[in-house]
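User: Can you predict the 3D structure of tRNA threonylcarbamoyladenosine biosynthesis protein TsaE? Sequence below.
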Amino acid sequence: MILAGADASEAFGARLAAVLATGDVVTLSGPLGAGKTSIARGLLAALGLAGEAPSPTFAIVQPYAPPEVRVAVLHVDLYRVEEPEELEELGLDDALYDSALVVEWPERAAGAWPEGLALSLEMLPDGARRLTASVPPSWEARWRQM
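Assistant: Sure. Here are the predicted structure tokens for tRNA threonylcarbamoyladenosine biosynthesis protein TsaE:
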């Protein structure tokens, strides 16, 4: 799928929000500036978040809960995580019982959570982004709805 710019990335995030449920894991991979946070912002806005969601780069985990959003979401940015022990301190395992996880830079914690929808972004020469999805069986029906 080709995303022409930030607006298209946010629109994709909004479509993703329509099928997101508690316990879901969505991972966003790609280089700096590829649009990972734009997708997350579109998702959070479509879930009801008023205002723009900040990037969780420095906080690492930015929680959102009802009534602020329709589905509780932990927006996670693992860019600054360097050691596996740091992941244990974040408490992401327990979060899946009552939240969805949207994880940027998931390659820094491979295998740390159940299989989910894995999205990868590639920057194209014209400024657009190529989005590639690895869709597990639990997401197949919902992916077709998008």
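The chain is about 25% helix and 25% strand. Strands lie at 2-3, 25-29, 61-64, 73-77, 100-104, 117-123, 129-134.
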